[in-house]
Each structure stands twice: as structure tokens, then as C-alpha cells.
Amino acid sequence: MEEAIMILEVADLVTSKEDYKKGFLEIALIKSEHMRPYVAETRSLEALTAEIDLPEDLLIGGKFSNSLLTAYGMSTKALNYLKLTQEDVQLLSKEFVENYLTDLREFRTEFSIRYTIIRGDTFGGKMKNLIGTLAKRKALHSIMASLNVLGIDFSVRIKESKKFVPFLEYELVDGIDAIHWHKDEFISRILLFDKRSPIVKTNIDIILIESDRGSIKESLCDGEKYIACGELKGGIDPTGSDEHWKTANEALRRVRKVKESINTFFIGAAIENRVADEIKQQLESGILTAAANLNHDSQVADLCNWLVSL
User: Fold this and answer.
1) With 199 labelled, which of 11, 105, 209, 306 sits at a CA distance of 20 to 30 A?
2) If 0-12 CB within 10 Å is exposed, 13-18 middle and 19+ buried, where does residue 41 land?
3) Integer Cα distance of 255 and 258 in angstroms
């Protein structure tokens, strides 16, 4: 196992108030932009129900069936899973109207509010995934920057097609799930993102293995091919710092249990003092090989330079 790239001080790892401020602002701006279609849905619902006279009129023709079920508390995921029959839909829609849309003066408002709240759950889930995507994007940019600066040719695999293609643009990174490059004439490296490890039996955010492009599955089943594993946590809420580190630490512990000599690393956006202290202790003892605060570009660059050099 490689030595840690550097033993960072606790203060270096801790996310500052300014970092949190920037992070929350970035997410707020992204949320505001992605919220537009959900706002449009509510406005559309309000416009369509404006001329409805009675709550039971919402049941006529089945036009509002999906919206009624959503307002009843069923997410899109739930509806896709349940595969309700037309009879089920009619029964549940009627039940919702009779139980919750009883006020003749306010039933439209009640319907709209309940619909918006449940759609908000879907929006929240999408935003949670997007935060993870933003963290991955930043890590990808930094890793590819290291490869470019070092003059190392590399290709990327597009998740949808499962095909490796030459890398062309930094902007087009969200669909990438693997990077390939040659360490030397005889040795290839594959860097995988959010991949289940057959030997660890869990998903790992970042895995570096010795493999060529045609033998990734086989290499993932061979512990000797594993070079480094890391966890990437992009959530910026300080109240989640402990939980993010706990989840990442357990995943990395399981990795080391399978292969004691492997390099392990952690990159996090929300790192509070207690977590930073524990990370420092692990770096000093050699349990953890490397770490970086995602908000500190120099730390991320240093870690990515180290990772590419392995």
C-alpha cells in the first residue's frame, strides 16, 4: 500500500462556513432552475381545475386520475411498481376525493397543495442524485485534468452504450462511468465510478484496477487487480457529515477486510471537526491512504495526481 499523499491537518480538512455558504448557494441555484417544470405542473393543474364545479367532477372521464393518485400520496415510482388496474385507479381516486376534497370552497386548493407536496418528494430525490452527480463531475474533471497535464492518452466509457471512446470535451462527463489509460507499455488502468465490487459485495464510489478494456468483469473478481478504492460524498449539509463519513468508512473497512494492502481514500464536501480528526488519525496510522475536502481544489488535485500515478 502506498503512503498517504500528505498528512493533512484537521483544520485543512474541515469545511469552513464560507465553503458551506458557497455550497448551499450553488445547490439553491440548481434547485431553482430544476424546479421550473414542477412549478409548471402545479400551474397547469390549477388552470385545468379552475372550471371544475364539484370535487366529484374530477372523477369524470379519468382525466385527473394520475394527478388524484399523486395527491393521494403515490409517487411515480410507486405507481410504476404497483401497475394498478383501471378498477384500482377509479376506486382509489374516488376514495381520495371523498376523504380529502370535501370542502366545496377549497377543494381545488387542497388538491393542488397535496399534489405539489408529493411531486416535491420526487423533486427532492432528483436533487439528491444531482448532488452526487456534481461531486462525481468535479472528481472526473480533476482526474482527467491530471491525465491531460501528464500527457497520458485516455479513453472514457459511456454508461449508456458501454463503449469506450476517445475523450473530447470536459463538459460531456455526466454519462461517463469508467476511464482507461496505459500506465506503461504492458500495464493498463481502469478507473470505475459507482460500481458494485463482486469481492467486496457492495457498491464503491471509485475503484482503480489493473485491467484492459476487455477484461473489466474478470479483473473486478480478482482481488490482486485492485489498486485503490475510494468514497466520494458530495452532500454539503453539515448535519450529514457524521453519517456520510460513517457510511464511507464502513465501505472502506469492508474493502480493506478483503484486501489489507489496498489503497483507500475519502473525498467529502461536508467535513466537520470530529470527522476531520478521525480522518487525520486514519491517515497517520496508515488505515486511510489519502483524503481531500471536495471544496478545496488543491487537495482534490493533489489526490487525483496521486491516484493517476498509482
Assistant:
1) 306
2) middle
3) 5
The percent of the chain in helix, strand and coil, each rounded to the nearest 5, is: 55, 15, 25
What cell was used for 41? 405542473
The burial class, CB within 10 Å (0-12 / 13-18 / 19+), for 144 is buried
Distances (CA, A) of 99 to 111, 115, 190, 236, 288: 12, 15, 56, 40, 56
Cell of 250: 464502513
Is 216 within 8 Å of 230 (Cβ atoms)?
Answer: no
Query: What are the tens digits of pLDDT across the range 124-165?
Result: 888 887 888 889 989 999 999 999 999 999 999 988 888 888
What single DSSP character describes residue 73? T
pLDDT per residue as tens digits for the range 6-22:
667 899 999 999 999 99
Q: Distance between CA atoms of 191 and 139, rounded to whole angstroms?
A: 12
Distance (Å, rounded) from C-alpha 204 to C-alpha 239? 23
pLDDT value, residue 129: 78
User: What percentage of the chain reaches a pLDDT higher than 70?
Assistant: 96
Amino acid at site 271:
I
CB-CB contact of 99 with 79 (8 Å) = no
Residue from 247, 209, 206 nearest 230 by CA: 206
